[in-house]
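User: For a benchmark we're assembling, each entry needs the component sequences followed by a predicted structure for the full assembly. Here are entry 17's components. Please fill in the structure.
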Amino acid sequence: MKIFNTLTRKKEEFKPLEEGKVRMYSCGPTVYNYFHIGNARPFIMFDLLRRYLEYRGYEVRFVQNFTDIDDKVIKKANEEGTTYDKIADKYIAEYFIDAKGLGIKEATVHPKATENIDEIIDIVKTLEDKGLAYAAEGDVYFRTKSFKDYGKLSHQPLEDLEAGARIDVREHKENPMDFALWKAAKPGEPSWESPWGQGRPGWHIECSAMARRYLGETIDIHSGGVDLCFPHHENEIAQSEGANGKPFANYWMHNAFLNVDNQKMSKSLGNFFTVRDAAAVYGYEAIRFFMISAHYRTPVNYSRESLEQAKASLARINASLANLAFLSDKGAEGEMTEKESASAAAFDGFKQRFCDAMDDDLNSADAVSVIFELVKEANTVSAEKDVTKAYCKAALEMLTELCGVLGIGQTESEEDSLDKEIDELIAQRQAARKAKNFAEADRIRDDLKARGIILEDTPQGVKWSRA
Ligand code: AMP
Ligand code: ZN
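Assistant: Structure for entry 17:
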């Protein structure tokens, strides 16, 4: 597999440190609100990467943190007259509800910053001992001038960065590019004991600490949105490599931004959407499908039209899955026809092209196109009146496998139980018809119609779909 590495600005062959194993860290949400559709992009795309690596046989250890202490969390707690940890716990629970809806698997570990204060203090102490950090008035700052590689991820020399930077009057920095590792406690704010007095960690240091604690000093892949490249990831590199004296991450991956109606999403423009709100309109699966339909390094535009389109495209895939499942049960017995055999023989070719696309820096846009070609092929062949179960099963298996890698096409459990109820009603209707109780049969059909379920009599039996 090839991965575009922000560090080298090249597509590189992916080689993990340890054969067959991948250590991967992705920056997670600051938990002071429901997460928005922009945040959903990295969460979905790096979940996709993880799923694909697992599909290719890697054992993936995936860490995604929760930033549970920072200015925004504290502000929200003050506004609501509660504590920072209550706010964090609430929005962590909400994160898992939306993530599950979006088909994002739980990470191997979801650590919280405040659970890692000891590890954080340990790194800051090491940096101070090495002369890479200095304490000032209870704050501790990273001394960027002493870290020779500063700027290597964002490809900007320190001098250029310094030119545009200012020091805030409340800070005690030697140089405008220095950044806080530890912040002295302010009255009324949560704080922890440290060698520099009561205080709390800066934002950047938490990821260096959690990556080291849960994955080790050098990891394979580090990822996040492109806005994190500078300064957040640049600072993570400085802290981790400064303290550990080893490369931090071998591959850096950054997703491009999601805009709304061709504008940057912001609360003041009134174009800010949480995943919770968007899911109420389009459904979670359509949001996931919208994201994976674009390559992660291409900017995407979120709009009503693009989401409606994603929903309709996804419905085509799901209809094909449902149709093949139906015919796997109701189709003709016996061996595949010649035409079916020829079609089934081509399935591996679809899979190969799907993998080729994903191997090319996770080109899920092309992988989705391959799925549509497979859907078209399977739909055409299975439209034959006496299509065999054997063919439909083979097509279903391949389509399910590839959709599974993308995390789509899985009927949710809630729908599953609904499906069973519908099947039962259809069976009751068939029984009523057999007994020539047409009034009852019609009543059941109308009942289902009122619930948006359309029945269709086909040569293989009754088929249903959602209107
Ligand atoms: P935050 O909670 O703001 O730290 O963001 C969590 C993740 O969402 C980070 O990886 C950000 O880079 C990413 N992110 C934030 N806004 C957007 C956006 N509009 N498009 C794509 N990614 C975003
Ligand atoms: Zn981070």
